[in-house]
Amino acid sequence: MTSPMYTHSVPVFKQMLLALQTILAQADAHVVTKSIEPDAFLQARLYPDMLPLIKQVQIAADFARGVTARLGDVDVPVHDGKEKSFADLDALLTQTLAFLDGADASNFDGSESREIVLRPGTPKEKKFSGQAYLVNYGLPQFFFHVTTAYAILRHNGLPIGKRDYMGVY
Q: What is the homologous superfamily of the domain 4-166 according to CATH?
């Protein structure tokens, strides 16, 4: 039987990242069709003190990789965060999805009680059980950034709806 920690993380990340990848492809086509400068979307924010679309996508991908790696007991992949275009974001999501596809479900066995330590040795160090890490930290963070990316695109006129956000399930 596959660990619930696996089934409640990796397939969820994949569904939402595939949907986000599809939406970003629609945004890329939209800016071309409407002769809009891509940075009008890529650097868009919902509010001045929030991060732009490009950073929201990067952070969503970071959480998908980080949570999967920590619960799957493998090293967290390093990411440089230098994406500047829709094509770069597509490549980032493709790489992230490939990492998720390579996750060994058996490595998640017992991860609900595994200690997860974030920012070890710093004043911001935080310790979680694997279950608390996934349910109370990882998934909410991931969904916040995916939802914010969706909201930025919708707010800026991309004709998308809930079905686009949800993707294939």
A: dinb family like domain (1.20.120.450)
Give how far the C-alpha of residue 53 lies from the chain's centroid of Cα atoms, to the nearest Å: 12
Each residue of 100-115: pLDDT tens digit?
Answer: 999 999 999 999 999 9
- 87 dihedral zone (left: phi>0; alpha: psi -120 to 50; beta): alpha
* CA separation for the pair 31, 108 (Å, rounded): 41
* DSSP of 2-69: --HHHHTTHHHHHHHHHHHHHHHHHHHHHHHHTT--THHHHT--SSTTSPPHHHHHHHHHHHHHHHHH
| Secondary structure letter of residue 77 according to DSSP | P
Is pTM beyond 0.85 here? yes
